[in-house]
Amino acid sequence: MSRVVVCHGIGYQYKHRETWLTEWYDALRVGLTDAALPVPEAGDVSAVYYGSCYRARGGKGNVDNELADIPPLRIGDLNDPLELELLEAFAEGTEVPAAGGKGLGQMALRRLERSERLGQPAGRSVLWMIRQVRRYLDANDTVRACAQQRFERVVTPETRVVIGHSLGSVVGYEALRAHPEWNVHTFVSVGSPLGIRAVYDRLLPSSPAAGDGISSVSRWVNVAAKDDPVALVKHLGPVFGEEVEDRPVVNLPWYNGRKYAFGSHSVLHYLTTAEVAEAVAGGLRAEER
């Protein structure tokens, strides 16, 4: 029925759709159960899978260790102005103007590698993440069109809640703005980079005017962890309008028993929070009224 649609971020090129959807559903079920809220059936939760949009035809990867599939990027490989702008933004932890060349990029990477907030390893994974975000936003790449087509195939007239994590929140935001005819009630963005100027300025169908949210949904709940290095702008209300309900949370920087550079960004941590559970349950209750 697709009452709830979830959309992943980067790093899913070689993950099996059913495997990660099961992980997401289990985490969401825990969050809803802990909050004493109704849990939707597993069959009511569907996934937008666009990871393969990044893969070259015939490309294969190591499904057991995705870090092994991160290319050995170096700072000199980032030569696109958007990539340098994103690198500087992540290094500063705030919105910044576009970087002015490789020298600034190298200094930004050194700041990232020393960052206690990110932990280790940071460098290579950050460069890879920036490259993936740039490819989605690049008008000359096919990733965005592919991801949007995947989204359109999953949403049904029964869909009431959309959850987008990380870059998936950008994919979801654009899909919802492009389809005001959908019956989605609640959009839940978690660990979202939507407030970063480099991302905000390149949104489609067009960059939103100041305070312009998503008119087609009744509710937008944004959940951002204090130490999440991707959700640089924690409060989206001042950017997209007062209708955005910003919900700060605390996620521990641990994942699978070890400290991880992006542990506080983990979608599984987000999905177990009471804030996400309440937003999902509220959206599903709305369909019963």
Can you describe what's shown?
- The chain is of the alpha/beta class.
- It is built from 10 helices and 8 strands.
- The strands form 2 sheets. A 6-stranded parallel beta sheet has the order 2-1-3-4-5-6, sandwiched between helices. Strands 7-8 form a two-stranded antiparallel sheet.
- The longest helix has 18 residues.
- The protein is globular.
- About 10% of the residues have low confidence.
How do the strands and helices of this protein lay out in sequence?
Layout: E1 4-7, H1 17-34, E2 45-48, H2 81-92, H3 102-114, H4 123-137, H5 143-154, E3 161-165, H6 167-178, E4 186-190, H7 197-200, E5 219-225, H8 237-240, E6 244-249, E7 254-255, E8 258-259, H9 267-271, H10 274-286
Parallel strand pairs: 1-2, 1-3, 3-4, 4-5, 5-6
Antiparallel strand pairs: 7-8
Helix pairs in contact: 1-10, 2-3, 2-4, 5-6
Short structural description:
The protein has 289 residues and is of the alpha/beta class. The chain is built from 10 helices and 8 strands.
Can you tag this structure with a few keywords?
289 residues, alpha/beta, six-stranded parallel sheet, 37% helix, globular
The shape, in one word, is globular
Percent range for helical residues? 25-40%
In percent, how much strand structure appears in the residues?
Answer: 5-15%
Structural class: alpha/beta
Mean pLDDT rating: 82
